[in-house]
């Protein structure tokens, strides 16, 4: 029975892939034992628990890839990416082997557990390793789609699974941008993964309160980024707002490169670099970062107003 929680859909799909393909293995670091523990006992050659040793986790997965297996490596995002970054860079990138890294607990999913369990830099870090595709699914169905896509196509993939999710799924079998809300194309908001619902709510508020008509585009894949789609769906001189559920500006250079020959303004929204010193619920942290509907509405409105003020000053 499938679930609607992205965090539990991941192990369901992972075990299904192991069942379907004798070359697929799961490597995990204690975390997720409630899903994989029985299989680690009954088929230890296919489901491997390395204990709380994340660097070993990645090295074992890369070694299995060198031996011809397709590994699915999993633990919490700060441990999988930040703690084991050198192993990702060398074991997978330098050795040029295939595999799927799947994290949970990204950004502020585990905010109350403190700084050790938070990361907003994981996407930027993995994207810096050559050859990685990076996916940020917004629903459980998109998690399943992207895992099966990575397994089918092989290559190197990072899938970021979080508790926050959208109310609607898209066909994410390609990295194409989807039109979630049609608009004029003069103001384009690109929502990545689980921030879509908040972005759509913000866009409706903006449309009601102003004469702006935002176009909202959605993607669950940021590497590769659909630059051609952005060009096609934007106006000749667009304002672009990029809303990412991790470090602000992580994909800003992708947008800038796509529009490099077209006059445009760009605003990157996301979590800031400053470390939060007060801990609350994930929703508290999302609101503090301005990634709830009101925060996005405020940032986008201020961004658009600044352009109008500057234009009025130039014409005065």
TrEMBL record:
<dbReference type="InterPro" id="IPR051157">
    <property type="entry name" value="PDH/Transketolase"/>
</dbReference>
<dbReference type="Pfam" id="PF02779">
    <property type="entry name" value="Transket_pyr"/>
</dbReference>
<dbReference type="InterPro" id="IPR005475">
    <property type="entry name" value="Transketolase-like_Pyr-bd"/>
</dbReference>
<dbReference type="InterPro" id="IPR029061">
    <property type="entry name" value="THDP-binding"/>
</dbReference>
<protein>
    <submittedName>
        <fullName>Transketolase subunit B</fullName>
    </submittedName>
</protein>
<dbReference type="InterPro" id="IPR009014">
    <property type="entry name" value="Transketo_C/PFOR_II"/>
</dbReference>
<feature type="domain" description="Transketolase-like pyrimidine-binding">
    <location>
        <begin position="4"/>
        <end position="169"/>
    </location>
</feature>
């Amino acid at each position: 029975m499938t679930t609607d929680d992205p965090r539990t859909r991941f192990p369901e799909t992972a075990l299904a892939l192991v069942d379907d393909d004798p070359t697929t293995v799961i490597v995990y670091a204690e975390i997720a034992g409630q899903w994989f523990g029985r299989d680690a006992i009954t088929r230890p050659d296919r489901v491997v628990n390395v204990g709380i040793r994340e660097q070993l986790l990645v090295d074992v997965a890369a070694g299995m890839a060198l031996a011809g297996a397709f590994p699915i490596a999993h633990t919490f995002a700060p441990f999988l990416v930040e703690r084991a970054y050198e192993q990702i860079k060398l074991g997978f990138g330098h050795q040029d082997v295939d595999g799927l890294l799947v994290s949970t607990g990204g950004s502020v999913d585990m905010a109350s557990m403190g700084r050790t369990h938070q990361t907003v830099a994981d996407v930027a870090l993995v994207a810096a390793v050559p050859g990685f595709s990076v996916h940020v699914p917004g629903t459980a169905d998109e998690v399943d789609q992207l895992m099966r896509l990575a397994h089918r196509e092989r290559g190197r993939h990072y899938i970021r699974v979080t508790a926050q999710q959208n109310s609607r799924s898209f066909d994410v079998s390609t990295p194409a941008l989807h039109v979630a809300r049609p608009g004029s194309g003069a103001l384009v908001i690109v929502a990545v993964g689980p921030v879509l619902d908040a972005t759509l709510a913000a866009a409706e508020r903006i449309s009601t309160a102003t004469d702006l008509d935002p176009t909202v585009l959605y993607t669950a894949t940021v590497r590769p980024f659909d630059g051609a789609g952005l060009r096609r769906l934007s106006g000749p001189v667009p304002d672009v707002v990029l809303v990412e559920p991790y470090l602000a500006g992580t994909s800003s250079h992708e947008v800038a490169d796509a529009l490099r020959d077209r006059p445009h303004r760009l605003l990157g929204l996301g979590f800031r670099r400053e470390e939060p010193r007060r801990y609350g619920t994930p929703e508290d942290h999302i609101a503090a970062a301005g990634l709830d509907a009101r925060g996005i509405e405020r940032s986008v409105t201020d961004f658009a107003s600044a352009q109008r003020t500057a234009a009025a000053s130039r014409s005065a």
